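Hello K.,

You asked for the raw outputs rather than the summary table, so here they are, unedited. I folded two proteins back to back in the same session to keep the settings identical. This is the first:
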Amino acid sequence: MRGSRASHRILVVVWTVAAWASAAVAAPLPADLDSVMPPYLAMGKALADDSLKEISSQATAMKGLVERAGSGFFPKELPQDLVRLSKANDLDAARLAYKDVSDRLIALFREHKVQTGRYFVCTCPMAQASWIQADKEIKNPYYGSAMLLCGDVTETF
Protein backbone atom coordinates (compact mmCIF):
# COMPACT_ATOMS: atom_id res chain seq x y z
CA MET A 1 0.00 0.00 0.00
CA ARG A 2 2.82 2.39 0.88
CA GLY A 3 4.48 1.90 -2.50
CA SER A 4 1.31 2.78 -4.38
CA ARG A 5 0.82 5.98 -2.34
CA ALA A 6 4.37 7.04 -3.10
CA SER A 7 3.87 6.28 -6.79
CA HIS A 8 0.62 8.23 -6.75
CA ARG A 9 2.32 11.25 -5.15
CA ILE A 10 5.13 11.17 -7.67
CA LEU A 11 2.61 11.01 -10.49
CA VAL A 12 0.72 14.00 -9.07
CA VAL A 13 3.94 16.00 -8.77
CA VAL A 14 5.01 15.11 -12.33
CA TRP A 15 1.57 15.97 -13.71
CA THR A 16 1.51 19.30 -11.82
CA VAL A 17 4.99 20.28 -13.04
CA ALA A 18 4.09 19.30 -16.63
CA ALA A 19 0.87 21.33 -16.51
CA TRP A 20 2.70 24.33 -15.07
CA ALA A 21 5.46 24.10 -17.68
CA SER A 22 3.01 23.95 -20.58
CA ALA A 23 1.06 26.89 -19.15
CA ALA A 24 4.29 28.86 -18.84
CA VAL A 25 5.12 28.25 -22.52
CA ALA A 26 1.63 28.95 -23.96
CA ALA A 27 0.39 32.50 -24.07
CA PRO A 28 -2.97 34.19 -24.57
CA LEU A 29 -3.66 36.21 -27.69
CA PRO A 30 -2.14 39.71 -27.32
CA ALA A 31 -4.80 42.45 -27.53
CA ASP A 32 -3.28 44.05 -30.64
CA LEU A 33 -3.29 40.73 -32.48
CA ASP A 34 -6.81 39.95 -31.26
CA SER A 35 -8.07 43.29 -32.62
CA VAL A 36 -7.00 42.56 -36.21
CA MET A 37 -8.49 39.08 -36.41
CA PRO A 38 -12.12 40.06 -37.27
CA PRO A 39 -11.19 41.98 -40.45
CA TYR A 40 -8.57 39.37 -41.36
CA LEU A 41 -11.07 36.52 -41.00
CA ALA A 42 -13.68 38.48 -42.99
CA MET A 43 -11.20 38.88 -45.86
CA GLY A 44 -10.43 35.17 -45.83
CA LYS A 45 -14.13 34.37 -46.03
CA ALA A 46 -14.66 36.83 -48.89
CA LEU A 47 -11.77 35.34 -50.88
CA ALA A 48 -13.04 31.81 -50.24
CA ASP A 49 -16.39 33.05 -51.64
CA ASP A 50 -14.57 34.45 -54.72
CA SER A 51 -15.59 37.98 -53.73
CA LEU A 52 -13.75 41.28 -53.57
CA LYS A 53 -16.78 43.02 -52.05
CA GLU A 54 -15.47 43.47 -48.47
CA ILE A 55 -11.75 43.28 -49.19
CA SER A 56 -10.98 46.99 -49.51
CA SER A 57 -12.95 48.09 -46.45
CA GLN A 58 -11.69 45.23 -44.27
CA ALA A 59 -8.06 45.73 -45.35
CA THR A 60 -8.38 49.47 -44.62
CA ALA A 61 -9.93 48.74 -41.20
CA MET A 62 -7.17 46.26 -40.39
CA LYS A 63 -4.49 48.76 -41.47
CA GLY A 64 -5.98 51.32 -39.07
CA LEU A 65 -5.83 48.82 -36.21
CA VAL A 66 -2.23 47.93 -37.06
CA GLU A 67 -1.24 51.60 -37.09
CA ARG A 68 -3.01 52.27 -33.77
CA ALA A 69 -0.98 49.52 -32.15
CA GLY A 70 2.13 51.64 -32.58
CA SER A 71 5.54 50.63 -33.75
CA GLY A 72 7.22 47.45 -32.77
CA PHE A 73 4.37 44.97 -32.44
CA PHE A 74 3.41 44.38 -36.07
CA PRO A 75 5.98 43.94 -38.84
CA LYS A 76 6.71 47.24 -40.59
CA GLU A 77 5.72 45.68 -43.94
CA LEU A 78 2.18 44.79 -42.83
CA PRO A 79 0.57 48.21 -43.51
CA GLN A 80 2.01 48.16 -47.06
CA ASP A 81 0.64 44.64 -47.60
CA LEU A 82 -2.77 45.83 -46.42
CA VAL A 83 -2.68 48.82 -48.79
CA ARG A 84 -1.92 46.42 -51.67
CA LEU A 85 -4.80 44.25 -50.54
CA SER A 86 -7.19 47.21 -50.29
CA LYS A 87 -6.29 48.33 -53.82
CA ALA A 88 -6.50 44.89 -55.45
CA ASN A 89 -8.64 45.02 -58.59
CA ASP A 90 -8.93 41.29 -59.09
CA LEU A 91 -8.95 38.09 -57.07
CA ASP A 92 -5.41 37.08 -58.10
CA ALA A 93 -3.91 40.33 -56.81
CA ALA A 94 -6.00 40.17 -53.63
CA ARG A 95 -4.95 36.58 -52.96
CA LEU A 96 -1.25 37.40 -53.41
CA ALA A 97 -1.48 40.28 -50.94
CA TYR A 98 -3.58 38.15 -48.55
CA LYS A 99 -0.83 35.51 -48.58
CA ASP A 100 1.71 38.09 -47.38
CA VAL A 101 -0.66 39.30 -44.66
CA SER A 102 -1.31 35.70 -43.60
CA ASP A 103 2.40 34.85 -43.46
CA ARG A 104 3.05 37.85 -41.19
CA LEU A 105 0.15 37.05 -38.85
CA ILE A 106 1.13 33.38 -38.59
CA ALA A 107 4.67 34.46 -37.70
CA LEU A 108 3.29 36.75 -34.97
CA PHE A 109 1.16 33.95 -33.50
CA ARG A 110 4.26 31.75 -33.38
CA GLU A 111 6.51 34.49 -32.00
CA HIS A 112 4.08 35.17 -29.15
CA LYS A 113 3.51 31.41 -28.58
CA VAL A 114 -0.25 31.97 -28.74
CA GLN A 115 -2.29 28.97 -27.62
CA THR A 116 -5.98 29.80 -27.39
CA GLY A 117 -7.32 26.76 -29.26
CA ARG A 118 -9.51 29.19 -31.23
CA TYR A 119 -7.44 29.66 -34.39
CA PHE A 120 -6.25 27.13 -36.95
CA VAL A 121 -3.51 27.45 -39.52
CA CYS A 122 -4.60 25.83 -42.75
CA THR A 123 -2.21 25.07 -45.58
CA CYS A 124 -2.98 24.54 -49.24
CA PRO A 125 -0.26 22.49 -50.94
CA MET A 126 -1.45 23.59 -54.39
CA ALA A 127 -1.09 27.31 -53.55
CA GLN A 128 1.92 26.65 -51.32
CA ALA A 129 0.29 29.05 -48.90
CA SER A 130 -1.22 29.11 -45.43
CA TRP A 131 -3.90 31.14 -43.72
CA ILE A 132 -5.68 31.35 -40.35
CA GLN A 133 -9.30 30.32 -39.77
CA ALA A 134 -11.49 30.30 -36.68
CA ASP A 135 -12.73 26.76 -37.41
CA LYS A 136 -11.33 23.49 -38.73
CA GLU A 137 -13.56 23.26 -41.82
CA ILE A 138 -11.31 24.20 -44.73
CA LYS A 139 -12.49 27.18 -46.79
CA ASN A 140 -9.58 27.91 -49.11
CA PRO A 141 -9.17 31.66 -49.79
CA TYR A 142 -6.50 31.06 -52.46
CA TYR A 143 -8.66 29.02 -54.83
CA GLY A 144 -12.20 29.77 -53.67
CA SER A 145 -14.92 27.74 -55.36
CA ALA A 146 -12.42 26.09 -57.73
CA MET A 147 -10.83 24.17 -54.83
CA LEU A 148 -12.69 25.31 -51.72
CA LEU A 149 -11.82 22.25 -49.63
CA CYS A 150 -8.15 22.00 -50.65
CA GLY A 151 -5.91 22.15 -47.61
CA ASP A 152 -5.30 20.76 -44.17
CA VAL A 153 -5.19 22.13 -40.65
CA THR A 154 -1.49 22.15 -39.85
CA GLU A 155 -1.34 24.07 -36.58
CA THR A 156 -3.57 25.29 -33.79
CA PHE A 157 -3.17 28.59 -31.95
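The second followed immediately with the same parameters:
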Amino acid sequence: MSREPLNNRSKTGGRTERGTFAVGNKLSPGRPPGARKRASLVVDGLLESQAEALAQKAINAALDGDVAALRICLDRLSPPQKSKPIHIKLPPASDAHGVEQAAAAVIEAVADGDISPDEGTALTSMLEARRKAIETHDNAKRLDLIEAAMNGKDSA
Protein backbone atom coordinates (compact mmCIF):
# COMPACT_ATOMS: atom_id res chain seq x y z
CA MET A 1 0.00 0.00 0.00
CA SER A 2 1.52 3.32 -1.05
CA ARG A 3 1.35 6.19 1.33
CA GLU A 4 -0.38 9.33 0.11
CA PRO A 5 1.15 12.71 0.93
CA LEU A 6 -0.47 14.71 3.71
CA ASN A 7 -1.43 17.45 1.26
CA ASN A 8 -1.34 18.23 -2.42
CA ARG A 9 2.46 18.02 -2.48
CA SER A 10 2.51 16.62 -5.98
CA LYS A 11 0.81 19.79 -7.23
CA THR A 12 2.98 22.20 -5.24
CA GLY A 13 6.61 21.11 -5.53
CA GLY A 14 9.22 22.05 -3.00
CA ARG A 15 7.39 20.74 0.06
CA THR A 16 8.44 18.20 2.69
CA GLU A 17 6.49 15.06 3.63
CA ARG A 18 4.72 17.07 6.36
CA GLY A 19 3.59 19.65 3.82
CA THR A 20 5.87 22.45 4.97
CA PHE A 21 8.10 24.30 2.55
CA ALA A 22 11.54 22.76 2.21
CA VAL A 23 14.63 24.72 3.15
CA GLY A 24 15.76 26.94 0.28
CA ASN A 25 12.37 26.77 -1.44
CA LYS A 26 12.03 29.64 -3.90
CA LEU A 27 8.23 29.34 -4.19
CA SER A 28 7.65 30.87 -0.78
CA PRO A 29 10.79 31.52 1.22
CA GLY A 30 8.75 33.06 4.03
CA ARG A 31 9.56 36.05 6.16
CA PRO A 32 13.23 37.07 6.10
CA PRO A 33 15.15 36.61 9.36
CA GLY A 34 14.62 39.54 11.70
CA ALA A 35 11.53 40.83 9.87
CA ARG A 36 8.76 41.97 12.18
CA LYS A 37 5.00 41.70 11.83
CA ARG A 38 3.09 44.78 10.76
CA ALA A 39 1.10 44.86 14.03
CA SER A 40 4.32 44.96 16.08
CA LEU A 41 5.61 47.86 14.02
CA VAL A 42 2.35 49.79 14.50
CA VAL A 43 2.39 49.23 18.28
CA ASP A 44 6.04 50.28 18.46
CA GLY A 45 5.24 53.46 16.55
CA LEU A 46 2.37 54.33 18.89
CA LEU A 47 4.45 53.68 21.99
CA GLU A 48 7.39 55.65 20.64
CA SER A 49 5.28 58.72 19.99
CA GLN A 50 3.91 58.63 23.56
CA ALA A 51 7.05 57.40 25.38
CA GLU A 52 7.64 60.59 27.37
CA ALA A 53 4.00 60.90 28.51
CA LEU A 54 3.87 57.20 29.49
CA ALA A 55 7.12 57.47 31.44
CA GLN A 56 5.86 60.54 33.31
CA LYS A 57 2.57 58.77 34.12
CA ALA A 58 4.47 55.75 35.51
CA ILE A 59 6.64 58.06 37.63
CA ASN A 60 3.59 59.90 38.97
CA ALA A 61 1.86 56.59 39.79
CA ALA A 62 4.99 55.38 41.58
CA LEU A 63 5.17 58.61 43.59
CA ASP A 64 1.50 58.18 44.51
CA GLY A 65 2.28 54.73 45.97
CA ASP A 66 1.53 52.33 43.11
CA VAL A 67 3.88 49.44 43.95
CA ALA A 68 3.92 47.97 40.43
CA ALA A 69 4.78 51.34 38.89
CA LEU A 70 7.43 51.88 41.56
CA ARG A 71 9.01 48.50 40.72
CA ILE A 72 9.05 49.38 37.00
CA CYS A 73 10.72 52.72 37.68
CA LEU A 74 13.31 51.24 40.03
CA ASP A 75 14.11 48.44 37.58
CA ARG A 76 14.86 51.08 34.94
CA LEU A 77 16.96 53.19 37.31
CA SER A 78 18.97 50.28 38.69
CA PRO A 79 18.48 47.04 36.77
CA PRO A 80 19.35 43.84 38.63
CA GLN A 81 22.92 42.71 38.04
CA LYS A 82 23.30 39.61 35.94
CA SER A 83 26.41 38.63 37.83
CA LYS A 84 28.59 40.11 40.52
CA PRO A 85 32.35 40.19 40.84
CA ILE A 86 33.87 37.17 42.56
CA HIS A 87 36.53 37.93 45.15
CA ILE A 88 38.81 34.93 45.62
CA LYS A 89 42.58 34.64 45.78
CA LEU A 90 43.87 32.27 43.09
CA PRO A 91 47.43 31.22 42.36
CA PRO A 92 48.88 32.31 39.01
CA ALA A 93 47.57 30.12 36.17
CA SER A 94 50.43 30.68 33.75
CA ASP A 95 51.10 26.97 33.21
CA ALA A 96 49.26 23.66 33.56
CA HIS A 97 50.45 23.22 37.15
CA GLY A 98 49.13 26.69 38.06
CA VAL A 99 45.76 25.96 36.46
CA GLU A 100 45.52 22.76 38.50
CA GLN A 101 46.31 24.67 41.72
CA ALA A 102 43.77 27.37 40.83
CA ALA A 103 41.08 24.74 40.19
CA ALA A 104 41.83 23.18 43.58
CA ALA A 105 41.51 26.63 45.20
CA VAL A 106 38.11 27.14 43.55
CA ILE A 107 36.87 23.77 44.79
CA GLU A 108 38.11 24.59 48.29
CA ALA A 109 36.37 28.00 48.20
CA VAL A 110 33.08 26.35 47.19
CA ALA A 111 33.47 23.74 49.93
CA ASP A 112 34.18 26.46 52.53
CA GLY A 113 31.14 28.46 51.38
CA ASP A 114 33.22 31.47 50.30
CA ILE A 115 31.67 31.33 46.81
CA SER A 116 28.53 29.67 45.47
CA PRO A 117 28.62 26.48 43.40
CA ASP A 118 27.45 28.50 40.37
CA GLU A 119 30.34 30.93 40.81
CA GLY A 120 32.70 27.97 41.20
CA THR A 121 31.39 26.46 37.98
CA ALA A 122 31.94 29.76 36.14
CA LEU A 123 35.49 30.05 37.46
CA THR A 124 36.24 26.42 36.64
CA SER A 125 35.06 26.87 33.05
CA MET A 126 37.36 29.90 32.70
CA LEU A 127 40.25 27.90 34.10
CA GLU A 128 39.47 25.10 31.63
CA ALA A 129 39.60 27.61 28.76
CA ARG A 130 42.96 28.82 30.11
CA ARG A 131 44.22 25.22 30.30
CA LYS A 132 43.23 24.60 26.70
CA ALA A 133 44.99 27.78 25.57
CA ILE A 134 48.18 26.74 27.41
CA GLU A 135 47.94 23.24 25.93
CA THR A 136 47.48 24.61 22.41
CA HIS A 137 50.44 26.96 22.85
CA ASP A 138 52.65 24.16 24.21
CA ASN A 139 51.65 21.82 21.37
CA ALA A 140 52.46 24.49 18.79
CA LYS A 141 55.91 25.01 20.34
CA ARG A 142 56.55 21.26 20.35
CA LEU A 143 55.47 20.95 16.73
CA ASP A 144 57.81 23.78 15.75
CA LEU A 145 60.71 22.02 17.52
CA ILE A 146 59.89 18.69 15.84
CA GLU A 147 59.67 20.33 12.40
CA ALA A 148 62.93 22.17 12.99
CA ALA A 149 64.64 18.94 14.03
CA MET A 150 63.26 17.10 11.00
CA ASN A 151 64.38 19.87 8.64
CA GLY A 152 67.84 19.70 10.20
CA LYS A 153 68.05 15.97 9.49
CA ASP A 154 66.77 16.38 5.94
CA SER A 155 69.47 18.90 5.03
CA ALA A 156 72.31 16.86 6.59
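The helical segments are 38-49, 51-63, 67-77, 96-112, 117-155.

Happy to rerun anything if the numbers look odd on your end.

Regards,
P.
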